[in-house]
Amino acid sequence: MQVYSGLPISQGLAAGKIVFLGAQKAAVRQAVSPQEEQLRFESAQRQAVDALGALYEKARAELGEKDAEIFSVHQLMAEDEDFTDLVSEAIADGAEASEAVRQAGEQCAAMFSAMDDDYMRERAADVRDVAARICRMLNGEAEQTITEPCLIAAEELTPSQTVQFPREFVRGMLTARGAANSHTGILARTLGVPAVSQLPVSQALHGHTAILDGFSGTLTLDPDEQTLAEAAAKIAAQQAQREALRQLISAPSVTRDGHSVRLYANIAGTDDLPLLRESGAEGVGLLRSEFLYLGRSTYPTEDELFESYKTVVQAMDGREVIIRTLDIGADKQVGYFDMPPEDNPALGLRAIRLCLTRPILFQTQLCAILRASRYGNVGTKKRKMLI
């Protein structure tokens, strides 16, 4: 029995066989011609964007809008102008398409890795994920998956892998790289799956029985029978506690000394209503209007906004619905808004600052909200301007 210490990413306890997912190695292919390789790249790029759109819908249905946003960002990365230019330049210099994508992905990832901010450094993994997806499209490679309950081990797990694995088979995740603020770490916590990074992960772990502790950040490899039995008892207690908490979903949110607390949920639109009901939310803390503008080529009309708002308001049956006007900008870009690139879009023209420069855009949302307020309890949330 050996115990390894790593970095806890997602809390929980799990035990089982380890399945190691190594990097896929594609057959070496020679470039045909720059023109042919460019066409292959553009086709694979479109396929990747479509596949990410499907992943977005899957994640939205299973995890909610907030976690699904990851794949909207990945779509933007796949079509990023700088990334595309780097690929095209490498192809023009004679590189095969998948090699050009790999090189461009590493260049972009290196820029993120060199940043001072921890969150931005973790975006390097997202860039590699997107580049690897396009390479798989170019090489005709299938997505890696699992077929039985196990602990998944890998050098680094990507957000797309995390979402695509059958949830009933994922007991835990152990990786060599990754941080708590990585998108994979965020998804692991949403899924309720224990995860630990900074572990000595390799092919040698494949098939071994292990205990993964997401509280202490430890991996116990080849535990003895007593240790395994103790872990099984703790896992059973953990599952019993989760079930007991589920029984409280419909209970009033009141503190021990009698103070009521409003427990609201944030949503992106009508598709999130089933999750809202399952969670026992007492209201909508934030209905994000910007998602009604994404995934389309023209501005929604006042009637379209009104119908979406009204559906949510009526479904909440008198419970408060706080509606936020759109927060377009930064990581949420919409082509038909024709917004010029900015050096620091997070602090640039976005949200209420954008609405104040486009009165008709703002007025359309306000009119739709006002109309919807006739059908229930509507509130609004003001976006504070960052100075």
Characterization of the model:
By secondary structure, this protein is of the alpha/beta class. It has 3 domains: 2-22 and 144-232, Phosphohistidine domain (Glucose Oxidase, domain 1); 34-139, Enzyme I, Chain A, domain 2; 264-381, Alpha-Beta Barrel (TIM Barrel). Helices cover 45% and strands 15% of the residues. The protein has 12 helices and 12 strands. It has an 8-stranded mixed sheet. The longest helix is centred in the first third of the chain and has 30 residues, at 34-63. The radius of gyration is 23 Å and the shape is flat.
Give the strand order, joined by hyphens, for the main sheet: 1-8-7-3-4-5-6-2
Instruction: Note poorly predicted spans.
Output: 382-387
Domain module count: 3
The CATH superfamily title of the largest domain: Phosphoenolpyruvate-binding domains
The dominant shape is: flat
User: Which radius of gyration do the C-alpha atoms yield?
Assistant: 23 Å
What is the architecture of the largest domain at the second tier of CATH?
Alpha-Beta Barrel
Just give the CATH class of the largest domain.
Answer: Alpha Beta
What is the beta-strand fraction? 5-15%
CATH topology category name of the largest domain: TIM Barrel
Distance between the termini: 56 Å
Could you describe the largest sheet, including whether it forms a barrel?
A: 8 strands, mixed
Number of helices: 12
Class computed from helices, strands and strand pairing: alpha/beta
Q: Total strand count, please?
A: 12
Helix percentage range: 40-55%
Order of SSEs? EEEHHHHHEHEHEEEHEHEHEHHE
Q: What is the arithmetic mean of pLDDT?
A: 87
